[in-house]
Amino acid sequence: MGASTWATEHFGAAADQLVEAVPRALRRAHEHAAAAQAAGGTPHLDPYGHTLKNRQHECLVEEVVAIGGFESFQPPGVPFQLVRLVGTRVTLFPWRYATNRKTTRLTARMRPSAFRRDLLTGSAGPRAQMTIEQAELSVAEIEAQYAEEKAVWDQLRSLARVVTVGYASNPNGIIDLGWGDVELRGDDGAVDWRHWEPLSWTATTTAHQAGAGRGLQAVTTPMTDLRPPRPRFDDVADTDDVPLRPRTTPGEPQREVPSPAEGTVQEPGDGAH
Predict the structure, then answer these.
(1) CA spacing 20 to 30 A to 134: which of 5, 101, 149, 160?
(2) d(CA 180, CA 124)
(3) How far apart are CA 264 and CA 273, in angstroms?
(4) Which of 92, 101, 51, 46 is nearest to 69 (CA)?
């Protein structure tokens, strides 16, 4: 699978390798999470969701940095690393938007944490309040200063573009995978996919999967041994969200509940996103 014009514009010569490395990273993360779920011996999906929340970032950094020309960095206030292209600083951000087929990338909502708002909306723009020094300036001088600051900010924003890797998965397999340009529109978590391209996760099957005794599957039919009794209010897809304040019980993993058989899943409640 070759890189598109859009991917080449974002990642240059590394685009062809990325279209293989990104699905490979998410496949590894899914495999590790599915193994944790199988070992957990519980019908709840806490082991899968909690493992995937961490491994999606770790595997993406490992696979992409190995290409060359990329670097990992840790944003302030979050416990995980992201990876970006050296020079242009185009950053890859993984987002698991659903656990089933009923929630599509167009209807999914993203938990609008402060980190995500800064990452996907560029909220840290030119300052809106006047400084003490500006009180001595004329209106024309202040307007010129703000224009200059905005130009610098716009340039920084263009050099720090974020490519969102969106996917849906559960222990049965990866349901959907792609990447594109996402804009977080408001506090309700609504997102706008300004560009989307699918990535082929099935085309990256390797001998490692065959040797493991079970390969990554595209979800087409449900696996009855993973079918839960019924959906719950806290069955949320967005398990990669990282709160920016301490939890009540340190170290307690976020609960995630398994999706029922395809065709019987209810949409997660608005309050869960």
Answers:
(1) 160
(2) 22
(3) 20
(4) 92
What confidence score (pLDDT) does residue 112 get?
A: 74
Pair of tokens at residue 241 = 């969200």
User: What pLDDT sits at residue 149?
Assistant: 64
- What are the DSSP calls for 201-232, one per residue? SGGG--HHHHHHT----B-SS--GGG--SS--
Closest by CA to 189, choosing from 74, 131, 270, 253, is 270
Number of domains in the chain: 1
- The pLDDT of residue 129 is 53
Rounded to whole angstroms, the Cα distance separating 111 from 53 reads 14
- The tokens describing 259, both together, are 């999706």
Decide if 270 is inside a domain. no
Task: Please report, for residues 130, 141, 144, 150, the alpha-carbon distance to residue 136 in angstroms, rounded to integers and kept in the order given.
Answer: 11, 10, 14, 21
CA–chain centroid gap for 2, Å, is 22
pLDDT along the chain (273 residues), means of 10: 89 96 97 96 95 97 97 89 92 95 93 79 50 67 71 53 94 96 84 93 44 39 35 42 42 48 39 35
Residue 121 DSSP SS3:
helix
The alpha-carbon radius of gyration of the chain (Å, integer) is: 21
pLDDT at 154: 58
Q: Tokens 């899943």 identify what position? A: 265
Residue 80: give the domain boundaries: 5-122+159-265
